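Incident review: delayed structure delivery

Summary: a single-chain prediction request sat in the queue longer than the usual turnaround. Root cause was a stuck worker, restarted by the on-call engineer. No data loss occurred. The affected request and its eventual output are reproduced below so the record is complete for anyone auditing the incident later.

Affected input:
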Amino acid sequence: MSEITRHSDYRQALDTIKQRIKTSQTRAVLAVNTELLSLYWDIGRQLDVWQRERAWGSAAVEQMALDLQTSYPGIKGFSRTSLFAMRQFYAFLSPQYEVVPQAVGQMPWGHVRTLLGKVKSVELVLLYAQACIEHGW
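Output delivered after worker restart:
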């Protein structure tokens, strides 16, 4: 232990910096997550529009998944199942919202997918999303 580490003001300064690092890391993760959910919302919106306006079926989504995986090797999240989940995400919430609701936008994608698979009410999804944020679930 060096001489400086024995001083309480040094330990307090170190704790302050460590807390600031932790806060920045959390904020960065939330910002990335928010951007990803915005991307997934937009992909879901595009798929919804194309399937309605151009009568694209599941084969087009399957091909798009293959092409995206080829274009972005090593990046997960663009499988056929994921693309359909993005469309479901958009279709479920878009009648009431133009963009991802704030509470939902702060949840991990896996949580969002679980809620969409189990909950049939937008209001209940928002309630669960808010609880997730408040309790750190």
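Verification: The two ends are 38 Å apart (CA to CA).
Action items: add queue-age alerting; document worker restart procedure.
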